[in-house]
Automatic annotation (TrEMBL):
Matches recorded under Gene3D superfamilies: P-loop containing nucleotide triphosphate hydrolases
Source organism superkingdom: Eukaryota
One Pfam family in the UniProt entry: Spore_III_AA
Molecular-function GO terms, alphabetical: ATP binding
Gene designation: ycf45
Organism (species): Ulnaria acus
Name assigned to this protein: Uncharacterized protein ycf45
Keyword Plastid: yes
InterPro entries, A to Z: AAA+_ATPase, P-loop_NTPase, PTPase_dom, Spore_III_AA_AAA+_ATPase
Amino acid sequence: MSDDLEKLFEKLPFFLYDHLVKHMYADQLIEIVLDLGRRPEARFPTGPEYLSQKVISWQDLDYTTKRISKFSTENRAGIERTLHRISCIRNRQFLITGLTCRVGRSIFGAISVIRDLLESGQSILILGKPGVGKTTIIREIGRVLADEMEKRVVVIDTSNEIAGESDIPHSGIGRARRMQVAKTELQHQVMIEAVENHMPQVIIIDEIGTELEVLAARTIAEKGVQLVGTTHGNCLQNLIKNPPLADLIGGIQYVTLSDDEAKRRKTQKTVLERKAYPAFEILIEINQQNSWTIHEDVKTSIDLLLRGDSFMEQIRFFSLPEKIKIFSERTQPQYGSLSNNQTFFPNLTWSSVNTLKHENSLKLKTKLLIIYPYSISNNLLKEVLLRMGINFILTNEVKKASIILGLKKHLNKNISLTQIATKYNIPIYSFNSISYYQLVRLFSKISY
């Protein structure tokens, strides 16, 4: 491991330097937070810890900022020949009132668990929430591809987080070449420039986040260059529901099926399908630092997920490079098909939500709830049901519904709807007005 902690600590006020160099868990440090008028704080994997009784003053912040490089337009700075990053918080007068000193590390052997995936030559997308270690992983990937597999690797380093602040790249990326990006919004241009000017076999990109960057990634993939990139998210489903990023895994679109095809699939006529071939063939979800979920065939996983079918995913656990456990499991989607349908359940009579008393314990999370929404927002319904983990379908056919939801004033005017509900024994729940809280309250009462 190479972390150059001494170079970071010496930029801090002496009372912090003295404490940190003696700290028994310094090698596990994630970041140091200095906020004006507050006690300085260190953050470790086990939680935060105050570093002093003394509060941070203007002089302390000024002392630190004068010893590091200038802040960019993204309010980030670095320390020469290290991987550390310092980000600042400014007030309305643009004066610095807080600093986040993020520890950057080059950890050799960090990607031994996915070495076989690198050797496949396929493009890999790494998905994880902020702070989980995505940048550390792609830095080591760059080194392994360049040094050990002897490939021509170009790193697109937008914020100098991958290869450090200096014009000379940090040794953590090995023989890989680094292209710096003057402004964040120009990242997509530098990605294309790297392919056109420097003949790479592999392009490494950190934090793909805009539609232009996604388009550039697809363009690079179509030129036959292997991509290794990262983006924010928890799982594959997050990408499907994120319009700017969905094209990374092929994009999605509504398709109208023929009557015969809809019957064969046992779905409604309008369904969601993958629009194109994914730019990344392999997807890695960083659940925890020592637990990764692997989708070795993104195309198949997406197709099965959109149909509401179960799919195989691979889990890899590791503690040390020589202690790796790999197993596969079949995963059921957290919600049914992502088509225009979505789900729910029971057979009751007309009920007002405010007086609902239902004693049957109906387990919505294990049943499919087919909802006919009447004069209410589909988007609000989807948000509530997805957050509650309920398996559901929204339908336009009343007879297929297991529940009807709507505003009371509109339901009272639709006599034919109530007649159909009575005939087919479909419960109707009415609202005087609908809010997120009321829907949660309804589904919670029905659930238990």
